[in-house]
Amino acid sequence: MTAAPPPGAASATAAQGAPAKGRIVEGHEVNANRDLTCDVCIVGSGAGGAVLAAGLVGRGLNVVLLEAGGAHTKADFDLQEGRAYPMLYQDRGTRGTADQSISVLQGRSVGGSTTVNWTTCFRTPPRILKHWADHHGVDGLTADALRPHFESVERRLSIAPWPLERANPNNRKLLEGAKKLGWDVHNTRRNVKGCANSGYCGVGCPVDGKQAMHVTYLPDAVAGGLTLFADCRATRLEHRGGRVSAVHADVLDRATGRATGKTVRVRAKVTVASGGALNTPALLLRSGIEGKGLVGKRTFLHPVVTLVALYKEAVKGFYGAPQSVYSHQFAEPAPGGVGFFLEAAPVQPMLMAQAAAAHGTMLRDTMAQLPHISAVLGLIIDGLLPDETGGTVTLRSDGRLRLDYTFHPAVNDAMAAAHDAIARLHLAAGAERVLSLHAEPVEVRDEAGLRALAAKPYGGLKHPIFTAHQMGGCVMGGDPARSVVDAKHQVRGFDNLYVVDGSVLPTSLGVNPSETIYGLAHRARDFVAEAAS
Question: What angle do CA 483, 485, 489 make, to 5 degrees?
Answer without folding.
Answer: 150
